[in-house]
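Below is how a single chain appears once it has passed through the pipeline. First comes the sequence as given, then the structure the pipeline wrote out for it. We keep one example in the README because the format questions we get most often are answered faster by looking than by reading.
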Amino acid sequence: MGKTVRLTAAQALVRYLGAQMNEAGEPFIAGVWAIFGHGNVAGLGEALHGVKDTLPTYRGHNEQTMAHCAIAYAKQMRRTRAMAVTSSIGPGATNMVTAAALAHVNRLPVLLLPGDVFASRGPDPVLQQIESFGDGTISANDCFRPVSRYYDRISRPEHLLTALPRAFRTMTDPADCGPVTLAFCQDVQAEAYDYPESFFEPRVWFQRRIRPDEGELARAVAAISAAKRPVIVAGGGVHYSDATEALQSFVETHNIPITETQAGKSALAWDHPLNLGPIGVTGGEPANDICAEADLVLAVGTRLQDFTTGSWGLFSNPAREMICLNTAAYDAEKHGAMPLQSDARVGLQELGAALQGYNADPVADTLKADWFGKVDALTDAPGDGNALPTDMQVVGAVQRASHDGTVVMCAAGTMPGELHKLWKAPRPGAYHMEYGFSCMGYEIAGAMGIKMAQPDRDVICFTGDGTYMMANSEMATAAMMGVSFTVVITDNRGFGCINRLQMGTGGAEFNNLLDHTVHKTASNIDFAAHAAAMGATSVKVSSIAELEDALAKRGDIAGPYVVVIDTDPYPSTEYGGTWWEVAVPEVSIRPEVNEKRAAYEVAIKERNTK
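Resulting structure:
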């Protein structure tokens, strides 16, 4: 029998975390976010203190946003590194469920370590314990099951010997990547066990690059070879696979245009002649027009959500074929697509080698010029006048202030649509959008995670007033830690994006903008003062010119820098886009709703007959 070392389960866990490396020789777990409570302070808290010099512990202000920061870190690192997050039992744990869902949707690694009830059941019911009247094995942490790629409950110290390798296999497997939850019973955290010393030897986790099956590759090559007007949909998997150079080589060799999802944007520079830009509901005319005519769609590293496909009404050529190149079989076979299960980089390389001599028909040279001729005017600075700036003009101001090292990020509300259409990303990694879960509250924590991942980048976060009110506490964390990034708060006094959707489906303006909610006192929130109270440097500006002046000063400011500007909640980019299925009431006393319902039924029929 080999040598053993006696450790508590919590000590064993953190020692194991510190020994797991990525291919570059860096610790795969870059740090641990922690809010301590009675479910983790005595066990994990003591264990983390013992390794604080090699595995840093960060304290946030909310469990959900701590996890958002960790997820943004992993996304910006292209899944080559990740973070862990620990909470107490009860509300501390359930606060992280939203973040787990976000990571699950976006296929991003994060290790969640919520405290759990006593395995011994001696003190049951312990403080914050959820009791199931019909199942004694259930705790609040069972909420994590549907939003975790791997879930386990550590109710004996030796469970770590199998649970931890499974956890890291999940987080480092491109096909299965996502959140891992190890619910850690609080008494077990403190229990000692004789662990094999070999369990803590350094291990390197290599990224598996799945090669295409010969038959799937041959069928995909035959289909592409027969296509005259193919198009590529580039998703987030292009970035995660580090396949941007392979994609560029592939499209240039075969003259195939690409379109970009929210997660795939910046796969090619915005001005590359074969980059037709954003696709789908928040897409532009060049991409959507080509997709509607395409006789073959090669979807690379995308899960083809409804915003990308226009609720599956976008690809309207009745003769078109679809190939899904994806590491995950689940995604590769969606909607009857021809599967090509493969790593994105390897798959593009092998497709390219097998397509020697193939060239697609050229696309019209005027497509992009016509598009930018329409939308560039929307982002120009306004002339003299008293009208509130539009979100498009705010995007233009930030664009003019950006440079090659800028990362622009956002997650929910109005700005994702405007940024997808209008932002000109100069290189891979310059655009960071969480739109898979479209989670309000990701932005500020996410910006902090991006800056922690890439300290040399100029990180600019867009957030609306509604999102800011949902989750702003990590602004204080960033100020305390000295993490520098810029936040542009566009205050349109409510949920402007959903208000427009409400109006677009025939509904009356109701309960979205603050002017249309029930209240006795008009809202007058001073966002600049609020951010300053948490330690940020902040300023309120009243025009696009003042916004540009404020942005020019950001390089001289340490810590978070917040610029607030009032905007008009109604305008949005009228060009581009495509149909998106939002169910309209079949019966209503409002004629506006009945009119929209009739149009909805026509659109459904058209989609279903394609």
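The chain has a mean pLDDT of 96.

See the next section for the split statistics.
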